[in-house]
Each structure stands twice: as C-alpha cells, then as structure tokens.
Amino acid sequence: MKIGLISNTPWGCPSFFWKKELEKYQLNTFFDEIVFCRDVGWRKPAKQIFELMIKNMQVKVEKCLFIGDDRRWDLIGPNNIGMDALIINRTEKKRVYDATYIKNLYQLLDNLKIPY
Known about the structure:
The chain has 5 helices and 5 strands, in the order βαβααβααββ.
C-alpha cells in the first residue's frame, strides 16, 4: 500500500515551504509521495493535481482512494478522474449525502479494497 498527500496551499505560496514544515515535524516520513497545488499549477479539485499523484506513485486510478474533509475540494476532483473518495466528517454537523463518509480514520479500514 502506498500513501500520498495532496494539498492546496495559500495562493502564491511555493510548495517547498510546506514540504519543509512536514520535514520539521517528520510528517513527510509517512508519505510515499507529496503533491502540492504549486507543483502542478492547479488547485484541488482540478484533475491535474490528482493525475500527477497517480503518475508519480505509478498506480492505477481504480486502485486509489482519496480521503478528504471538504466536499468541494476532496470529492469532486477525485471522482472526475474515476478515483474513489471518502469524506471524513468527525462532527457530522455537515452531513454529506452524495458521498461515502467516515467519522474517524478507524472506519477507513472498512472502506479499503485490500484482498485478505
């Protein structure tokens, strides 16, 4: 299994600032690939940021699952290229009816397509 991070950054902010922050807290070690919007020139939900991740990780889109917390950025983009997506909704205040959602990352295991 590979794990990637896709994220938008504030407008105009180079991705190396955010990559340095991840390194500072050693969070970069949890990811096989990290793609920020500035690496592509497009912000989520544009398909280009998701396509770059797939290309860099050398995986098939149908084998990917994207997890995000905002329907606008994290559901529409992946779905537009055929990637499954889950919305994490910890409080359930904003229920997302057109998406599969989970309340916590423990529930993620139930949604992974891993042969046992």
